[in-house]
């Protein structure tokens, strides 16, 4: 009889296997899926930038409007894509739970890591393209960028964990969460400057932690960017910690329900 | 040895919780024994097999696997969008065989005889091809106890002969817990039997006694 494997070793083996399986699915699912993965956010960002330039807006908060849009959107996409990938992680890997080594939490964490991996590549490509077109797209404060981006990513993971359990327990929540995602794009200060919202409504919009993350990423790129007053890294990370702990707690409690028939 | 202690199981259905499928099943299954599960359709044979395999969890009670137990063979475990080779790689990695991946893959490819289809997505496979792959996969690893749900019934005549030989060899080397409806198959492979009836499980040291009890319970 072979020596039983260490639980940690099993987890790492499972993560590696799921990572490779997910990467193949994401990159080679359709014809040239990897191409569309890159081109879709690039076109989206390019389109919005052109529209903004067409209405003769050259600066937002004192910085180049192109950079303002690119950086804000990349931060927001990182959150949204991670959240959606994690939300459907268990659903998309259902046949693999036939192996008892694979736990419901495994595909969720692996998908978040894979999404971060892809977004780093996509963001580098888009920022490099912007630099070639003459925009100053090098982050001046990389540490602040890393911290804010990390916050957005972890919040995406936490949100996805909580949402996937809720969806499993109460299937109707899927519709509500989808409805929630739509306006999130508009109210997170991605294409509409927060500074243009008058009080007291700005106060309400600032309750959304994604606004804080997006604004802070921009400040990391250009230190003289006029951040909306009230933006706070601690607020973003408070949401990160609460959502992650709640998500892990729900997984711990309802892990069996997620895969049980 | 697999210890099954007082397990109860019921499923969640569209209209709340369903009936109890298993109600207080306790068993000690030795490691080097071939056991057949017998019972009517819907008696809970596959449920018990899934619980022993650790794929599903009992509503009450616990199960301890004190040896290496396979996943329930012949039951899913294949991702449709991936090719047979990619699925095989996944299973190897999950079971900690990253180092000798190439050998195991070669075995699976050779045994399943899928040829070019081995690199096609599993969703394009026929039922027979799927079971070929599943069977080859489960033989690629050394388990102490194999659990199998009607797996020998699959494939064409040539492959069935090959699996029967491999199955026999496996049954001699390791333990086996299997579900089958065919009396001949059960008698060929199993020494002992478990009869599942009305949510309870009854252990019989000899498979013939189990079959007899099963037949006697059928209303005339």
What fold name stands as the CATH topology of the largest domain in chain B?
Rossmann fold
The named CATH superfamily of the largest domain in chain B: P-loop containing nucleotide triphosphate hydrolases
- On the 0 to 100 scale, the average pLDDT of chain B is 84
Structural category of chain B is: alpha/beta
- Count of all domains of chain B: 2
Distance between the termini of chain B: 37 Å
What is the largest interface, and how many residues per chain?
A: A-B, 29 and 30 residues
Outline the biggest β-sheet of chain B.
Answer: 5 strands, mixed
Q: How many β-strand stretches of chain B?
A: 8
Strand fraction band of chain A? under 5%
Rg from alpha-carbon coordinates of chain B: 18 Å
Order of helices and strands of chain A: HHEEHHHHHHHH
Q: What is the H-and-E element order of chain B?
A: EEEHEHHHEHEHEEH
Could you provide a short overview of the structure?
Helix content of chain A is 72%, strand content 2%.
Descriptive account of the structure:
The complex is a heterodimer of chains A (261) and B (220). The longest helix of chain A has 28 residues, at 105-132. Chain A has helices spanning 7-28, 33-54, 65-87, 89-92, 105-132, 142-169, 173-187, 201-205, 209-221, 233-259, and strands at 59-60, 63-64. Chain A has a two-stranded antiparallel ribbon. Chain A is mainly alpha-helical. Chain B is an alpha/beta fold and 220 residues long. Chain B has two domains: 1-68 and 143-220, 3-Layer(aba) Sandwich (Rossmann fold); 77-141, no CATH class. Helix content of chain B is 36%, strand content 26%. Chain B contains seven helices and eight strands, in the order E-E-E-H-E-H-H-H-E-H-E-H-E-E-H. Chain B has a five-stranded mixed β-sheet, with helices on both faces. A three-stranded antiparallel β-sheet of chain B has the order 2-1-4, with helices on one face. The interface between A and B is medium-sized, with 29 and 30 residues.
